[in-house]
């Protein structure tokens, strides 16, 4: 199993799990790899900083005279954002894996658990904002999740 840091054309950074690096290239060619955030299929392996520097040194005339690493630098804020995105996606995936999707029955199920009518388990689902507020007022622990349908797709 190989974990690759991948990046789509919109600079979303995410992890991809493949049997090997060849596996990744094959799946990419067959259009099976897409960004879990935006669905973009223009995915490539995230270039590491040293490789970026090498490329700049080769392509840019005169760059050889400059100290390495100055011609191209990672924008810290962007790197941080990408890191955050990657972490959020990972957390979302964990939630998806560890919860049962009860869809529209969410409020009903959450209430029943709160009142001890059914056994407690981790669930996720949909409800209106008004009902979510009601649940919170009743003391039912609910947490809003960002809507990321693409995350779910990557699980299959
Ligand atoms: Zn993307």
TrEMBL record:
Database matches in Pfam families: DUF1178
Matches recorded under InterPro entries: DUF1178
Domain of life of the source: Bacteria
The protein's name in its UniProt record: DUF1178 family protein
Naturally occurring in which organism (per UniProt): Hydrogenophaga borbori
């Amino acid at each position: 199993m190989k974990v690759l840091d991948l990046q789509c054309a919109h600079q979303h950074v995410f992890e991809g799990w493949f049997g090997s690096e060849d596996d990744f290239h094959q799946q990419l060619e067959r259009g099976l790899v897409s960004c879990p955030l935006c669905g973009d299929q223009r995915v490539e392996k995230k270039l590491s900083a040293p490789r970026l520097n090498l490329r700049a040194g080769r392509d840019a005339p005169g760059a050889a005279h400059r100290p390495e690493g100055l011609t191209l630098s990672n924008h810290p804020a962007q790197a941080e954002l990408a890191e955050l995105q990657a972490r959020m996606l990972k957390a979302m995936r964990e939630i998806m894996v560890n919860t049962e999707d009860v869809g529209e029955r969410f409020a009903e199920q959450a209430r029943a658990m709160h009142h001890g009518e059914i056994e407690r388990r981790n669930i996720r689902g949909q409800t209106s904002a008004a009902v979510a507020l009601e649940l919170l007022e009743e003391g039912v622990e609910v947490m809003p999740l960002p809507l990321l349908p693409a995350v779910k797709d990557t699980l299959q």
